From TrEMBL:
This is Adenosylcobinamide-GDP ribazoletransferase. It comes from Sulfitobacter pontiacus. The gene is cobV. It comes from the Bacteria. Signal peptide: none annotated. The keyword Transferase applies. It is a multi-pass membrane protein. Its cofactor is Mg(2+).
Amino acid sequence: MLRARVAEARLAMLLLTRIPVGYLRDPIPATGASAWGWPLAGAVAMLPAGLIYWALHAAGFGPTVAALGLIFATTLLTGAMHEDGLADMADGFGGGQTRARKLEIMRDSRIGSYGVMALILTVALQVALITRLDHPALVVPAALGLSMASRAMLPFWLARMPAARADGLGHGAAQVPAACVYIAVAFGLVGLLPLGFGAAAVIFAGVVVATALVAALALRQIGGQTGDVIGAMQKLAELAGWGVTVYLFA
């Protein structure tokens, strides 16, 4: 039992980060079975990024440079997979006229103008929001909590939404056990508790609303979820969480 859970946690790290955890040996867990560990993978990836933010801020580089350092480090540690999903979703939903064309554009590895603008705007907004907080004692725990909370809802939507394709990561990860959904949501809430119980509840509610809006848009545009939709969902949920955090604390 313990060996299986460790394998699932390592698979979560392999899926969502570029942090080396070694090769998995057979039997390799199903992708959906690792979903409970996705918030933990988010925390592991964010911890060194948070330390970089603290170091840059303490060295006197200012809140903007520190915020950029946090985002840059997180992007490197996650392999920019969520940013890639956001760009692909923006290109597909913005440039395609039919469901089939939208899915075709989303699978294209090239980035278009919608994707570029989506990335520029989200990074700019995130930097602006983190800069407003301007305190490592608040930004670092918020970054860790939001990294966990924004990934905590992904298993829920994978379990609830149909796959838009008959292949791909979204299809392969769609079979998420109910227990994994509950555990992931619990980890997401726990990650925000250092900000206070009331604040954690409000911020998590903002994350839930953001993911629900992305889910509704994806259902309308392509009839379900793909790996790109799930990646975009994480980025937009994290951004919404930063917005709520600034509203509560700035």
